[in-house]
Amino acid sequence: MREQARSLHVLAPSRTMDPTPGFYARVLERIESERRPSFWDAFLEPAFGKRLLATSLMLVGLLGGVLAFTEATTEVATATPEAVMAAEHPPGLGSNVDRDRETVLVSLATYRDYR
């Protein structure tokens, strides 16, 4: 063990080796240049932010215009059994009394209140 320790001391440098001036700065600069850009870096660029803001404002304006200039044509009606029966007349209703009774019975039996 002593012999190997002496062999290792022989390989040690005679003076301390300090890095040249600017070594750490060059290392950090090289690390930054080789760093892969992050996905989020694109969102931090000012040009992208301006384009995103302009696009968002145009989209809000467009949707606001569509909403403002379209008429609401749907009316909310109450879903009572009488309204359902009055609105949905099968073809040929009134020609055969027995069939009409069966039709009304089936309509009433299958009615669902969706309120």
Topology:
Layout: H1 2-11, H2 23-34, H3 41-44, H4 46-69, H5 81-87, H6 97-109
Notable features of this structure?
115 residues; mainly alpha; elongated
General description of the model:
- The chain is mainly alpha-helical and 115 residues long.
- The protein is built from six helices and no strands.
- The chain has helices spanning 2-11, 23-34, 41-44, 46-69, 81-87, 97-109.
What's this entry about, in short?
By secondary structure, the protein is an all-alpha fold.
Helix percentage: 55-70%
Principal-axes geometry comes out as elongated
Average of pLDDT: 79
Distance between the termini: 91 Å
Give the helices and strands as they follow along the chain. HHHHHH
Total DSSP helices: 6
Low-confidence stretches are none
Total beta strands: 0
Report the major sheet.
none
The fraction of residues assigned to DSSP E strands is: under 5%
Cα radius of gyration in angstroms: 42 Å
Sheet/helix structural class: mainly alpha
